[in-house]
Design brief:
Elements lengths: L2 E3 L3 E4 L3 H12 L4 E5 L5 H6 L1 H18 L15 H15 L5 H7 L2 E4 L2 E5 L2 E4 L2 E3 L3 E4 L3 E3 L27 E5 L3 H12 L3 E5 L10 H14 L2 E3 L3 E7 L4 E7 L2 E7 L1 E4 L3 E3 L34 E3 L10 H17 L12 E3 L4 E6 L2 H8 L4 E6 L4 H5 L6 E6 L5 E8 L2 H13 L19 H14 L3 H12 L2
Parallel strand pairs: 1-7, 2-3, 2-8, 3-4, 8-18, 10-11, 10-16, 11-12
Antiparallel strand pairs: 5-6, 6-7, 9-17, 13-14, 14-15, 19-20, 20-23, 21-22, 22-23
The structure holds flavin-adenine dinucleotide (FAD) and nicotinamide-adenine-dinucleotide.
Flavin-adenine dinucleotide (FAD) binds next to helix 1, strand 3, helix 2, helix 3 and helix 8.
Pfam families: Pyr_redox_2 (PF07992), Pyr_redox_dim (PF02852)
Family: Belongs to the class-I pyridine nucleotide-disulfide oxidoreductase family.
Organism: Devosia enhydra
């Protein structure tokens, strides 16, 4: 028998995006139906951020054992028990899972339905026998791995982000197709855990990163022994009784690789199939049918329906999903006008060294502002904490307008992700370089690099003729 529900909000998908909306809506007392077809917690918890960072942590420990010499400790080749590495990753997931669980969301007062949601008309979603006519709907269905059309790929086994964290064995030679954040984070982790790793990237590795910063991380990956083939296509894959043959092509011609396993890290596309969007009069883009047409306030062409997170078709980050959830809550529950501001969304890539960016990067500033901006730079080579850790490779860059307002911050080096949070705070609050001199950083911390950027700003300002005149006047005072 059909069960009818009429909540304030119906959220489709219980990943980072859906869970954030549902929890916030319940905190304000709105009634919520939350629908999930697979695992609560979605990609981030089960096959994205959490397992990848846990694997990176294991790789880091192995790397530290091999490279202890400089600290006066006899280095040792670690014995990698890959099943136990797998267990560590799964334990971390299991430890966080209760936070995203059905039980927790039911206890909050959400009605949680397990099943596949689809629209039947502009106001109605069905899940099995349940019919939900909500005041507002949120599509938070995430994305799934893109499988490129490589001849022969369908005849060999391959990993994607959805399966790689189930692996319990050391992989002899892992070919990673795609040199974006996923490909390179996992390349370094697998290399440090004892695999030979080759990354084949069709364009530029870390192509969305300021090249000056990317080069620092890519050099380290190369030093770790990750082979990165840029501007190279995978032409075809050949199934063999032992291993997999791979034909790649670059400007140097064709080459053959013998690998044991393949991981696809070639991007992710929104999960929209099966939602019956046309029945809800939700339009998708003509040039990109897997992209929903969205307003700056994340509304679809059906004003009752929003789309957020990876399903929204823009950048794919958990913190972006949470930010978008906040915007939807303000608009859907309080009727406030909202507009996404991409300039305040940070990006961090967890290679070693990490890379972080927020707001304008140097290449973007050149494109948008010509020469109407300033770059302040500081190197980790001048940071005492980085020196004590022997982690001096890296730099931070701050982009300001001519009056010192901070428009962007980029950093590669130890703790870059954490430092990017600091820059994100500055950009979101429209702070200027003078604010960097108005706080005291504990010594010795990596954050002191921020003070160094502030000093840079004033070093140039100190040459200002007016300031020099004032100093001359003050000198004459008794
Ligand atoms: C390897 C990897 C590492 C990553 N690392 C980071 C990182 O370090 N930092 C970061 O910010 N981001 C990272 N990301 C990206 C991040 O995981 C995603 O941006 C984030 O999880 C998106 O959340 P979401 O809620 O939009 O989608 P998801 O988490 O995918 O959730 C969508 C949910 O909707 C469900 N669903 C889909 N269709 C339906 C339907 N019709 N009915 C019911 N349920 C449905 C799905 O089962 C899923 O559970 C990483 C991604 C990968 C792959
Ligand atoms: N630290 C983080 O925040 C983090 C980490 C991992 C993943 N993610 C997110 O998850 C999503 C997926 O990550 P990703 O790295 O797979 O996606 P991506 O789109 O960032 O990178 C994919 C890369 O694969 C390359 N590529 C595509 N097809 C190819 C082919 N046939 N042969 C060779 N190269 C090919 C592209 O040129 C690109 O560089 C991204 O949106 C990313 O933002 C985030």
């Amino acid at each position: 028998m059909t069960e009818r529900m009429t909540p304030d909000l119906c959220v489709i998908g219980a990943g980072s995006a859906g869970l954030s909306v549902a929890a916030a809506a319940r905190a304000f007392g709105a009634s919520v139906v939350l629908i999930e077809r697979a695992k609560m917690g979605g990609d981030c918890l089960n096959s994205g951020c959490v397992p990848s960072k846990a694997l990176i942590a294991a790789g880091y420990r192995a790397h530290a054992m091999r490279n202890a010499q400089a600290y006066g400790i006899t280095p040792e080749e670690p014995r990698i028990q890959f099943r136990k590495v797998h267990d560590h990753v799964q334990k971390v997931i299991a430890g966080i899972a209760p936070h995203d669980s059905e039980a927790r969301f039911r206890a909050m007062g959400c009605t949680v339905l397990i099943g596949e949601a689809r629209f039947t008309d502009p106001r109605t979603v069905m899940v099995g026998e349940a019919e939900i006519r909500a005041r507002r709907f949120v599509i938070a269905t995430g994305a799934r791995p893109v499988v490129p059309a490589i001849p022969g790929l369908d005849a060999v086994p391959y990993f994607t982000s959805e399966t790689i964290f189930d692996n319990t064995r050391k992989l002899t030679h892992l070919l990673i197709v795609g040199g974006g954040p996923m490909g390179l984070e996992l390349a370094q982790a697998y290399r440090r855990l004892g695999s030979e790793v080759t990354v084949v990237e069709a364009g530029t590795p870390l192509g969305r990163t300021d090249p000056e910063l990317a080069a620092v991380a890519l050099n380290r990956l190369a030093r770790d022994g990750v082979a990165i083939r840029a501007n190279t296509a995978v032409e075809r894959v050949i199934a063999r009784s032992m291993g997999i043959g791979v034909v790649i092509r670059s400007e140097n011609g064709e080459e053959r690789l013998d690998v044991s396993h393949i991981l696809l890290a070639t991007g992710r596309k929104p999960n929209l199939e099966g939602l019956d969007l046309q029945k809800a009069r939700i339009r998708t883009r003509k040039d990109a049918p897997d992209r929903i047409v969205l307003s700056a306030g994340l509304r679809t062409s059906n004003r009752r329906v929003y789309a957020i997170g990876d399903a929204a078709g823009g950048a794919q980050f958990t913190h972006l999903a949470s930010y978008q959830a906040g915007l939807v809550i303000r608009n859907a529950l309080f009727g406030l006008p909202v507009r996404q501001n991409p300039d305040i969304i940070p990006v961090a890539t967890y290679t070693d060294p990490e890379i972080g960016q927020v707001g304008l990067t140097e290449p973007e500033a050149r494109k948008r502002l010509g020469d109407r901006f300033r770059i302040l730079r500081a190197s980790f080579g001048e940071n005492d904490r980085a020196r004590t850790e022997l982690e001096t490779h890296g730099l931070a860059k701050l982009i300001t307008d001519r009056r010192g307002r901070i428009l962007g911050g980029s950093v590669v080096g130890p703790g870059a992700g954490e430092l990017t949070a600091f820059f994100a705070f500055c950009v979101a609050n429209k702070l200027s370089a003078r604010h960097l001199m108005a706080f005291v950083a504990p010594y010795p911390t990596l954050t002191e690099i921020v003070k160094r950027l502030g000093t840079e700003y004033y070093r140039e300002a100190a040459q200002n003729p007016l300031l020099q005149k004032i100093m001359a006047l003050v000198r004459r005072l008794p």
